[in-house]
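Response to reviewer comment R2.3. The reviewers asked that we include at least one raw input/output pair. We reproduce the pair for Collagenase here without editing.
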Amino acid sequence: MEDYTVVIGTSDNTQMPDMCATQAPSDARTLVNGVPLCVPTSSQFVSFSVPGADSAGSVAITTSYGLGNLTLEARNGEGGYPKPGDDSIRSKHIGNTECVVITNPTKYWTNVTLRGLFKGATIVADLGKTSCRTQPGQPDPGNTGYPYSHVNVLIFPFSFSDSALPWSNAQIEADMQAVKNYYTEQSYGRFNVTWEVKPEIYINEPKSKYDSDTRSWHKLYEQRIAQAGVDLNFPGEATLVMVAAPQVSNINSQAGPPYIQLYHHTPGTIAHEMGHAMGLRHSMSVEGGNQIINSGSDTIRNYGNPHAMMGMGAHTLEEYNLMYKSYFKGWVNDADAPVITISGTYRIYAFDHGTASGTNAPGNIGLRLKSGNGDYTYWLEYRTTNNRYNNNTKNGVLVNIQGYMENESLPSFWNHRSALLDMTPNSKDNSRWEIEDETDAELAIGKSFTDPWNGFRITPVAKGGTEDTANAWIEVRVEKF
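Raw output as returned:
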């Protein structure tokens, strides 16, 4: 990236008009000096380019108005558009009012990205200015957790002239009841799921028309849901929108806050996509080759946790991993999974036998440990229910790390993602299925793991209680350094 000075500007009280109040969202992707634009609604990002900053000596970029929460990112010169984790300058405050000022730019083009879930925002670029048109508010801490103890799902069934929805109302009710029961158990009775099945939306066109034009399909369902009185991107607090349709093209079921595209109509898929729509990413894993972590060439493997709902466990309604449970309000508290600061032997009970009555465990259901550098948190959990990939988790602890190699850019998702540590790396033949390597990821009794940042060593030493119940336990020796 070229060398230049960047400052977050302050307001010079120049008028900042609310363009979306009088104009439709603009299709332009080049910002003309001093000309405000109404930005299209986004659930991910919108990008613009600003010409001529080098000869002007500076450029001030301002956003404001509308709903949601965007982050303004900009860079001048090499590197193209801002990318997550790069050295672009970022303005990240609560709401849509953001400001970036670049002084002494060396290149003609300045590239700008607005990232997040937002609508009705205005953007303007002022060449030669060293202050913005508005003053941002409080810094944005990001998505620190799902703040509600409930969620309501608005289900919009779609069918086409040649393809009926293969999901009857009776089956919808049955599957959603299964999802409700699942979340009640996962939350230990602390979370409630409700739903409303809206009238079917009939598309008097063949599905094949949209199989070859998925962009038009996305635009169509958003318009039809809007006609039904619901804003797909802003349906209201603690509310999700589900688009339930026959599979268009080869689109997989998918979701991101706050809506779901559902093409595979099963309780496991619904529960998984609801997790995304409420702000969770996949349950991943660390791939360090022959090492567990910190190999020098580590990567994060998508879907890498084969045991967890947000990994490969959706089809069989596997348990949310303990770290992801902590994202939800009140599911897991500090007493359930305390942070260990003193050496000793600690007992944790199986966390995967909860009901509406609670965890049903007589003690802690997890442990947390900080890395020696203080940057990462390890979550230790004990699973005893049989998983279709591995029945041996009851003979060890599973460890997920929080904060490691995180590079999350969308404000609507949680600041963190979970990454499972594979305690027996390269133990499987990856030619058939790469995530097969993580099916034996548990740290087995008698084996040790040492934090590479010299914070601790852990060794499971014994198990007991009634197997396959909430009374099953494992003891872990913790040596703090």
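The first strand starts at residue 5 and ends at 7. The CA atoms of residues 1 and 78 lie 5 Å apart. Further pairs are available on request from the corresponding author.
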